[in-house]
From TrEMBL:
Keyword Acyltransferase: yes
Pfam families referenced in this protein's UniProt entry, alphabetically: TsaD
GO MF term set: tRNA N(6)-L-threonylcarbamoyladenine synthase activity
EC number of the protein: 2.3.1.234
Protein name, entry field: tRNA (Adenosine(37)-N6)-threonylcarbamoyltransferase complex dimerization subunit type 1 TsaB
Keywords recorded for this protein, A-Z: Acyltransferase, Transferase
Enzyme class: transferase
Superkingdom field: Bacteria
UniProt-listed CDD domains: ASKHA_NBD_TsaB (cd24032)
InterPro entries reported in the protein's UniProt record: ATPase_NBD (IPR043129), Gcp-like_dom (IPR000905), T6A_TsaB (IPR022496)
Domain Gcp-like: 32-145
């Protein structure tokens, strides 16, 4: 097994390589505006650090979000392209699950990432491996009652201390955590889903209301 994991659903552009026993190389850079520029060089850097070629990879793991449309699609399209070119399976893992796994908390807690527009992407967890709710996008004040008294991790939690007073790191997901979680699930016989994006809301770009269709005469 040699899994290449990547995630661009948060401001972190993160890549890792897992050999079935542990992560053997990883890279993470935080830059919300340069996912497309940073991802492929990060893949090259991780492969070089591990001393392997891309064609040695036996599977791809991609963070599926939720996340902003532009950043999220960079990672998912790259993962799909690698999978097609190499003829290897591509597995999807929820980005919030990767953050929860990295947090390594025993009791109930919340993961919240920054969804912009004064909102967060979030979900509740029973522990670091068990998600209790589907990922959602909401204003922090609107979910204050649901998350009251619970520890929280992620950039969204750190941004809104009034709603998440027990917020702490990790701030962003790491591909290393995604890879470890994916390997754990695969070894347990779990079938990981296809890497389909969790956008949760429509993209910012919209067709103008007064748009007129021009037809040839």
């Amino acid at each position: 097994m040699l899994l290449l994991a990547l995630d661009t659903a948060t401001p972190a552009v993160t890549v890792a390589l897992h050999d079935g026993d542990d992560v053997i190389a990883s890279s993470s850079q935080v830059d919300a505006r340069r996912h497309g520029e940073l991802l492929l060089p990060a893949v090259d850097r991780v492969l070089a650090e591990a001393g392997v070629r891309l064609d040695a990879v036996t599977g791809i793991v991609a963070g599926t979000g939720p996340g902003p449309y532009t950043g999220l699609r960079v990672g998912l399209m790259t993962a799909d392209t690698f999978g097609l070119a190499l003829g290897v399976p591509v597995h999807g893992v929820c980005t919030l699950d990767g953050l929860a796994y990295a947090a390594d908390l025993d009791g109930p807690f919340v993961v919240a990432t920054d969804a912009r527009r004064k909102e967060v992407y979030w979900a509740r967890y029973a522990d670091s491996r068990t998600r209790l709710t589907d990922p959602a996008v909401d204003r922090p004040a609107d979910i204050a009652g649901e998350v009251a008294g619970l520890p929280a991790v992620g950039a969204g939690a750190l941004l809104y201390p009034d709603t998440f007073p027990q917020a702490h790191e990790p701030e962003h997901v790491s591909a290393a955590a995604l890879a470890r979680l994916a390997v754990e699930r695969l070894k347990a016989g779990e079938e990981l889903p296809a890497p389909r994006p969790l956008y949760l809301r429509r993209p910012d770009a919209q067709v103008p209301k007064n748009y007129k269709v021009v037809t040839p005469k």
